[in-house]
Please model this.
Amino acid sequence: MNRFEKSFQNQPVIGLAPRPSIVYRPGLPALPEGTERHKVAGGGSLTLEIKAGDRLTVTDLEGGQPCEIAAAGSDGKSDAPVLDVRATNEASGLRAALAGDGESAAHIRNALARRGIDLGQAKAIRLFGATSPAGNRQSFTAQRDGILIIGAPGGKMDAQVQDTATPIEVRVERAHMARGKDTIALPEPLSDPLQDIRVDARTAKAYTVRAGEYIQIIDVSGRQMTDFQCFSRRKLDQGIENALDGTVTRTLTGRAYPTPGLLSKMFGFDFEPLVEVIQDTVGRHDFFATACNSRYYDDVGYPGHGNCTENFNRALEPYEVAPRKGWEAINYFYNTRIDDHNQIYFDEAWSRPGDYVLMRALTDLVCVSSACPDDINVGNGWDPSDIHVRTYSDKEKFSRAVAYRMTPDAEPQLTRETAFHPRFSALTRNYSEYRGFWLPQRFNNDGPVEEYWACRERVAVMDLSPLRKFEVTGPDAEALLQYCMTRDIRKLSPGQVVYTAMCYEHGGMIDDGTVFRIAPNNFRWIGGDDYSGIWLRQQAEKMGFKAWVRSSTDQLHNIAVQGPKSRDLLKEIVWTAPAQTAVGELEWFRFTVGRIGGFEGVPIVVSRTGYTGELGYEIFCHPKDAIAVFDAVWEAGRKRGLSPLGLEALDMLRIEAGLIFANYEFSDQTDPFEAGIGFTVPLKTKSDDFIGKAALIERKEHPRHKLVGLDIDANEAVGHGDCIHIGRAQIGVVTSGTRSPLLKKNIALARVDVRHAEIGTEVEIGKLDGHQKRLPARIVRFAHFDPEKTRLRS
Model:
């Protein structure tokens, strides 16, 4: 150390001012104060209250989408001069959207009826059109108070013309910002409320509901926890406090807490069902711990702190419910978990402004809800706020649903039924949520093994409507897809399909899917994730490509008809024009345009594609034609032993065939080579640059992992995440596992270190803690079933 360093060492250190914590919250959009964001679904509409001076900005998010705006005064009279532009067009698109038979259209009609608004002869402002670019926007200023009805009109999409309906975004900058509890507007009621109850921050309120009525618990500002408890009114009158019991509910449902669907009920301590969950836009709650209590705060140094238990005791006193030191409750919006060390931990609530849980009372109830006062940790975001409760009549009908968000900052979309649901639901009640839709898990009487054999030996039909579809059009559509996909899109002819990967710059996968070439400048991308369409649109803007990427998932629903007899079945019912390829002539990864039954039949697109490893096809149609399509397939399939196919049987089929699944075989940390689809990256023959190419060249030259098949010498099940060992060292992980009916043994797909990926390598699958119990296995040829794809090509 020199003299200068010694001198400097003895000097006092001049510290910097403490820096504030930086946290990004895409789940809570950081809109400017006084700004609201709303979304109008393609083909849908919304109502919006507006005040004089408010600034309205309407954006065509995906391009090519018309928009209509009608206005009414606060008195309900239509065509009021609310905006600074006069409405001169017929509101035909809005009226068509409101005439729909969906739950969303019914809610908008109810909202208009509550305000006495009739759009029968109303005029509308019409914005945008077929050539509108993505992101095109127009702004208005409100001249007076009123109601706006905003629609994104769209009719039945022509699969060849690709005239889909896509979302419109509406932003409102309020001229006069509300203060206090009215700063954030409540969501529109689901119907006419029987009760509107505000539970102020740090308090609780009790209320009664009758059997069959609905209870909606709303997080007003977001990140606010609320405890809910209820009692059978009949038993309470007899002096019996039959309250919700978490232990009983977990035992009977096999879940940490109920969810919409089959396992939706909550039970009292005497096993009586009290409520069932109908809708849930959050999906993260707690049913383990009690409501917060004085002991909790005392023990962490905050004696006398307000708590939910004491608030419950005060609220329930009029009903003569005995006070408790700690109330058991379903703790809605509590983000509580148990880690690998058996430690209960919690974090900030997942709920956003307007998120809710909707329950149905199964008997007459006395209920109590709190707005948790916890401000000593992150649970309420350090800032307790209000909860709002609404109740609705037992005459109302609300669909069972959870919320799906395509991106963290997107508006929630409730689980929907596909257009084929009326037919499939007649065969089963066993459904699960998949990417915003209800899909059958298994069917009554047959079950997954019989469904599996039907596909392998005869023919099966399944619903694949949740696949995300995007219409990619414009003079630069080919250039966009050539740049964003790993396959050589330029080699596709109209009528051909190619399976491809889509990657980030570092080579990790965004999605896999298929590209259909409909015409020289018209393509359809079909994948599994909404984000793939957003990504394509972002790249088009970045590169300056004149191309539109418009979602068509809601305009094209599809079933898969798979199995050795699928060709004969479809030849019987699909008519094609002489200029189109007949179904019987379709080769693998080709598609044709046809009709069901004949020249006057409903229009369809049929592709020779699938996800089973068998000869098979997919039929795409507009949702309005789905029942006619299904009925034709079902009737022609009777003599061929047609069976419905659920997700459980599909998993057996695709694992045997070595077909990959998102977040199992691949993620954004996995490149196509590691995911077992290296054939989708033709580095030697695709000379054009594409996103991730440089990284993929490097990854191919220096591979780390390989997807392999495993045969397991044990009859115990293995599954996603099970560790794979050679000796003590872990050398891989199981990505998917199943019992193969055909091979009569357990098999798996696994990602292993390339140094141990040779066929015949003996490995062990770790169970329990990975070491106490092992299942012997060996690496075998990939895939287990028909590795040469002879059945697919037959």
About this structure: DSSP finds 16 helices and 44 strands in the chain. The radius of gyration is 29 Å. The CA atoms of residues 666 and 675 lie 6 Å apart. Residues 3-8 have pLDDT under 50 and may be disordered.
